[in-house]
Amino acid sequence: MPSIDGLLLDMNGLFRHWHDSGARTSEQRAGLPTGTVARYAYDHPSYRLARVGVLTDQQWASDVTERLATDYGPAVRNHLGPWRADRGEADRTMIGLLRQIRDHLPVGVLSNCTDALREDLDHHAIEFDFVFASADLGVDKPSPLAYRAAADHMGIPATALAYFDDEPTFVLAARSVGMQAHRFNGAADFAKHIRRFGVPLLPATATGPVPPSVSR
After folding, report:
1. Which residues, including other chains, have CB under 8 Å from residue 8's CB and lie 6 or more apart?
2. Residue 207, pLDDT score
3. Are 114 and 60 in contact (CB under 8 A)?
4. What is the pTM of this model?
5. CATH domain 6-17+89-196 topology
């Protein structure tokens, strides 16, 4: 396998898993049908605006709150705390591998996220050398511009970067700009790929099985 000078990784599905337990708690307390929060939050055009930086994370959340309050009554506002407090579940196995890799290669994260990404990384104690939220770049995956911007900021040619993502479309997009892109299929498979790039890795210890995450 060709050598690389750096690594670029997706966030959700690799280092963070969403189970939407906070949304379900908010729905139960507010008497909302299951899936209502997701429909108003992530299936609405305002989420895309937040992902590319037109809206801040707080502006987007306020928009979600007001639309829910308009349709289901003002009392809904009092029950959305669990949804907003839920920042997903960190994958400790992947975090352990990341710490080892950073001793040998610079590692960046490229995620279709609002401007809350850096706070979420601090919350989960996940450290990258470079952090690229789509909201900060003003463009989201799978646009080639997102990958090129990340490579430029890292100061590494796209052809010298390896990229991993659990979304096949995003993998293909990374390959279109010359990155050595691979589908993420779990921590063990990921570690095998990294060793093939010449990075020595000790087995990372998991804290337990992680249930399937909710795609966003």
Report:
1. 107, 108, 109, 110, 147, 150, 151, 154, 161, 162, 163, 164, 174, 179
2. 44
3. yes
4. 0.91
5. Rossmann fold (3.40.50)
